[in-house]
Each structure stands twice: as C-alpha cells, then as structure tokens.
Amino acid sequence: MDVAVLESLEVLRRGLEAMLRQLDRIGRIECHRSMEELLLMASKAYGGEWNPDVIIVSCCAPDDISTHVRTAFPASRILELVTRADPEHLAMAARTHADGYLMVRDITETTLDVTLQALMRGELPIPAPIASYLLERARSSEFSPSPHQPYFSPRERDVISLLLEGLSNQQIASKLGISVHSAKRHVSAVLNKVNSPSRVHFVTQMLRDDRAPAQRF
Q: I need a surface site. Which of 39, 98, 129, 214 has the fewest CB within 10 A?
C-alpha cells in the first residue's frame, strides 16, 4: 500500500511518517507540507504517474484540500484527520469529500493500521464524534421531513446508526444480537429505500448532503 501525507504541521507530519514506517503493509511513503510539493515530487520522481492508494490530509487545511486531491488523484482514497470534536469543526469535516476519518487524538500505529485496512476494503471509517454529530444533525428540528421520504422501521433506524459508525455486517449483527444474514437483509433494505448502490455511497451521501437520508428518522 502506497501512502502520501499532506500536513502543514511538521510535528504531526513527522509523527505520521514514523508510524507509517512501522507498518509492514505500507510500501512507498511520501510526506509533504502542501499539494504543490506532492505534485512536484510526483512529476520529478515518477513522471507524474505515481498514484498513492491513500492520501492523508487534515481538515484544518486553509483551502478545500480534499477537492484538489480528488482532482489530481482520482483513484486515491482520502483519509481526513479531524483535530477537534467541537460542532463547528465536525461540521467542517462532515462537508468534505473524504473516504474515511480519523481523530488526531486517537492516532496510534494500531488505529492507523486498522483505518487504512478498512479504507482498502472499501469501508468508510467514521470516528464516534462525527457519527454522533451526524445523528444529532439528522434528528434536529432544522430539517423538515418530506412526504416523499421512505419509512424506516425501528430496526432499520438501528442499522442506519451503526452504518454511520462504519460497522461491518458482522459487527452490526453482533451489536443488535441478530444473525449476519439478518444484518445483511436490513442493510440491503435501507440501501434500496434510498436507491444507494453501496454502504459506502450511503454514508458518503450522509456526510456530503445536508438533506441526508437519516433525517427520515
């Protein structure tokens, strides 16, 4: 797995690099302060052909770095670092186009490794603070339900809550005390009701769209 880090804070950038070098599954590592540095390196060292599997960015970047990364490296997965748990910062993180999130305070070699593996499996890692923020926002009175929105059963609402936490079918089954087959059936029902092709698409839309499906609670 090739990983690039875009982080302006040197202490965090160097810390991430040190942890990444301890992970056996990591191949090439590039750590830079800005998108410009990363693009320049890719051009000089690889003729512009290098496409990292994961690019780690900070949601504290001065501009919409995730959009720039997505444009320059469309095949790369974006892991966004969230530095604070206050509502304003979580709202900023939730509006980006990342493929996964990790709280800076939770970063260890183990959590970094687990999160990167989840990204490569096509899952969407979401820390508890962001998941809680989404649920609170979805249930708040600022949204007015539409009569065209589908009805979710109580069990499906439970499943949606766990999907927001990035849990697998096996983990959902364990949390709810049901079989994996039942968990798969409930997940499929939720995705079908919102015409979503995958759980990743479903949760990504929750993060990107202010009128997300969970408001139908």
A: 39
